[in-house]
Structure formats: C-alpha cells, structure tokens
Amino acid sequence: MNTKISFQGVSKTFELKGGRFLALDRVDLDIADREFVTVVGPSGCGKSTLMGMAAGLVEPGTGRILLDGAPVTGPGPDRGVIFQQYALFPWLTVRKNVEFGLRLQPISAEERHRRAQHAIDLVGLTDFADALPKTLSGGMKQRCAIARAYAVGPQVLLMDEPFGALDALTRVQLQDQLLDTWSRERRTVMFITHDVDEAVYLANRVVVMAARPGRIHRIIDVDLPYPRTEEVRLSPEFSRIRNEVWHSVYHQAPAA
Amino acid sequence: MTAVSVTDPPPSPGRRLRRPGRTLVLNVVAVLAGLGAWTALSMSGITGLTGPVEVAARGVELVADGTLTNDMLASLRRVFTGFALGTLLAIPVGFLMGWYATARALIEPYVQFFRTIPPLAIIPLAILLMGIGETPKVFVIFLAAFLSSVVSTFQGVLDVDKTLINAARVLGASDRTIFLKVVVPASTPFIIVGMRIGLGAAWGTLVAAELIAAQEGLGYRMQQAQLYYDLPTIFVGLISIGVLGLIMDRLLLLAERRFTGWQERR
Ligand SMILES: Nc1ncnc2c1ncn2[C@@H]1O[C@H](COP(=O)(O)OP(=O)(O)O)[C@@H](O)[C@H]1O
Ligand SMILES: [Mg+2]
C-alpha cells in the first residue's frame, strides 16, 4: 500500500508567556492511500494541532510531514479540510459555496457547474442548492462543507470533529452518508473525533492519542467489513473493538 | 448519498412572529399623543412655546417661497459631499488598518485622537485654514463621517471569522482572493453600520458647520431665526433636520437588509 501522509517524528511546542508548552511529542504515523483513519484522545492532546500541520494551517514544528513523499509547506487544494464550525461562507448559497474552490482552478464555467452539481448531489443537497446557509440545519451545513471540500477533488480529507456539534441522530446519519460518499469516491481520510463509537464505526484504524505531552498512545485496527451497517454497529465484534478503544482512551497510564 | 434518507429539516423560520400592523398603529398613536402634548403645552402659555399649527403654517410659508427647499438642498448637498468623501476614504483606510498591522499601528493613534475632539472644536481652525466658503463646512462633516466609519470598518475586518479565512485558504485561495472574496463580504455589515453612524455624525455636525458664515441651509436658517426670536422657523428647521436624518437612515437600513440579509440573527 502507498503511504499518502506520513508524520515522521513530529513535535510541536508553543511559546507561552509562562514558558514553552510541548503540544506534540515525536509523533510517527503513516496513513495509507485511501485509508480512513480516525484519531481519538482526551481534549488538549494535540489532535487539532497535528491535523492543522498536515493541512498547512499550523506552523510546522520539528520532524517531517510528507504528502506523497513531499514535505507539506502550506495549505493547498490537494487536502480538503472540514471544520467543526462548518465554516460556510454565509453570504453564498450552497452552490456558490461549493463553487468557491472550483473558481480558483483553471476550469471552464461548464466544468465548474458540472463538478459543483455533482458534489451537491453526492451529499444529497440537490434540493437546497440555491439556499443560503442560514436556512440550513447543522447537518445540512456540514454536508455542504463536505461537498465544498469534495468538489475540488482533494486526495486527502482532513476532518476535525466535523460532527461534534450535531445531535446524536443526525451524527449517525452523517456517518453513514460520509461512508457512502467515501466508498463511491475513495479518498484518504483523517478524521478527528471525541466519540469512541464514531471512531470505530468509520475507521480502518483508530489512532488513540494521549495528553501531556500529546503523543500517540495506541493504534487499533478495525477489522470490520465495509459497507458498515447497523448490523456491524450492533455486532459483538464491534463492541469488542469499541471496548478496547474506550479502555485505551479513558484508562491511559500517566506519561513516564 | 442520495440513497440514504435525508430527514433533518431546515430550522423553523423566525421564532418570534412580527406583527407589522400593530407596530404601525402604536407608532401613529405615539406621534399623535406627542403632538397633543405639544399643543396642550403651548396653549398652557409656558414661555411662549409655539404650537404645531403655527409651526405647520410657517412650514407651508417657507415651502411656498422656496426658502425651505433651498435650505434643505444646501444642507443635504453639504452632508452628502462630506459624508460621501468621508466614507469613501474610510472604507479603504479601514481595510488597510484591519488587514495590515503596520498600517493600523501608523494610523490608529491619529484616528483615536481626532475622535476625541468634537467636530465643533475643529471649526475655528477650519475657518482660519480654509476661509469661510463651502470647504470648511464640508471638511468638518467629512471628518465626522470619516472618523466614525473608519473605526467600524477596521473593527469589521479584525472580526472576520478566522475559520472562514482558513476555509478559503485550504481551498487554494491567495491572500488577494481571501481579501476580496472573504474579508470584504464578511465585513460589509460592519461597514454599513459604520456608514449609518457616520451619517448620523455628519448630519449632527451640519448645524455647527453652518455656523460658519453660511448664506443658506437649515442650520443657518435656524441661527437667523434665533436672532429674531422666530420660534416657528426654528421648529420647522428642527423637524426638517429630524425627518431628513430619519429618511437617510432608513435608506441605509434598506441597504443593510439588502446586502447583509445572509446574516444569521439570533
Ligand atoms: N496557538 C496556540 N498557542 C498556544 N497553545 C496552543 C495553541 N494551539 C493549541 N495549543 C495548545 O496545545 C494543546 C493541544 O491543542 P489541540 O491540538 O487543539 O488539542 P485537541 O484538538 O486534541 O483538543 C492544548 O493544550 C492547547 O491549549
Ligand atoms: Mg481540537
């Protein structure tokens, strides 16, 4: 399997008034092409910082982050980012939001419309294409954000607690929709969550992080078949893995 | 994804239902009550206050001989020139200050300092430097409009949601695109609020500006009326200033609705 993103000995310190704070300590992680990796861990363990560096939004620390073997130097349309706060442009309709990134590419107007429509259909917002974000529910907003990221054809999706602000029911629906989208057009996904069920349900592998300093605690394989269905969610195998992840998130030995 | 049922409905529209009819009735009642109180007060003979009827009669007179229209046009011309120049300059300067920390550090001391000086206090200086023509009047209004809208614009740029900027950046937007396609639209509500404050400031400075040896204008007319103890004309002037100010503010409010209707209100 080809490695898509590779974190090699990545550390990050923040300079604070009271001194320096080690947010990430020598993180090594390889994510394979088209793999779905979820990252869980206690609040403040550096999940967002790790992803932010891969996105090119957080100043790099020490170590290397490689995308297809080349160091990440800044943000780019090869990596789509989904934020918890949706980050839709409120003055643009769903369609215009989705077209935002496409407009920055050297493609014709027809091509842009076609690709935007495709992404909108993909997330099931066809009937809301010309609605403003303020008229959408949280779940629909996040689907619009996913469409916007998908439209520019990134090879990697970086998602930082994208469903964290949604109610439990909507969250489960969006998980299914995301997997459905992902299985149709497979991308490499790095998905941060604080929800253990979500982490296991979505992933090929669950990365469990620990705090102070932020580091990788364990990586747990999820040997469950896709498509994941309710049957999978309720299976004993799922519970076994879920318990294992739960245990390593909530019963971490303190750092040596 | 269409295969999966989509059950989350859009949120319900406004939770508080407005009843425009009732509000309007209350508005009219309030105005009529005010007029009634004014009439009663003037008839009770306190300090020779004129009543609405006299004022209305004077208003008709002043309209008939063209004075009021002339004065209004003269005042409006000054306000608009000063206001237009003020906001036209305030918007780019505000963006500059919000976007470049260096520009902010260089400009902000001046803005904050001049903001503390009432425009009225600038008048003696303006007369000495610019003579007694239109220039000092327009300048003072310009200054008032500029200072109030520049602060609001640059605050608007500073307050642009950083995740929106990041969202644009990860889609491949350059700084230029981010500025034009994210920062400018995101700060429009602030700019329009700034324009409304600026217009209020400009209008408010008008009477003071027209102290400067004007030959016409609502402020000038009221100054003249004061010399002759002509209360009805003063009232006509005050009411005209109020009504024109209200109309201009409503127009900007319409622009605000038109350009910032996308905002989520809570
Ligand atoms: N820009 C920053 N400056 C200083 N400290 C930061 C900054 N960003 C994050 N941190 C700190 O680094 C740690 C990890 O943050 P974050 O990556 O957001 O954690 P997580 O997403 O896992 O909750 C936290 O303790 C946070 O306070
Ligand atoms: Mg986080």
TrEMBL record, chain A:
SUPFAM superfamilies, per the entry: P-loop containing nucleoside triphosphate hydrolases (SSF52540)
Record-annotated ABC transporter domain positions: 5-236
A Pfam family this chain is assigned to: ABC_tran
Organism: Nonomuraea ferruginea
Assigned keywords, A-Z: ATP-binding, Nucleotide-binding, Transport
InterPro entries: AAA+_ATPase, ABC_transporter-like_ATP-bd, ABC_transporter_ATP-bind, P-loop_NTPase
PROSITE patterns associated with the record: ABC_TRANSPORTER_2
CDD domains, alphabetized: ABC_NrtD_SsuB_transporters
Keyword Transport: yes
The keyword Lyase is assigned to this record: no
One MF term in the entry's GO annotations: ATP binding
Name of this chain's protein: ABC transporter ATP-binding protein
Family annotation (PANTHER family): ALIPHATIC SULFONATES IMPORT ATP-BINDING PROTEIN SSUB, TAURINE IMPORT ATP-BINDING PROTEIN-RELATED
From TrEMBL, chain B:
Ranges in a coiled coil: none
Xref: Gene3D superfamilies: MetI-like (1.10.3720.10)
Membrane topology recorded in Swiss-Prot or TrEMBL: Multi-pass membrane protein
Residue ranges constituting the ABC transmembrane type-1 domain according to the UniProt record: 72-252
Transmembrane segments annotated in the record for this chain: 24-41, 79-101, 113-132, 138-158, 178-199, 227-248
One Pfam family of this chain: BPD_transp_1
Keyword Repeat among UniProt keywords: no
Key words of the record: Cell membrane, Membrane, Transmembrane, Transmembrane helix, Transport
Localization annotation: Cell membrane
Keyword Membrane: yes
UniProt family annotation: Belongs to the binding-protein-dependent transport system permease family.
Name of the protein in its database record: ABC transporter permease
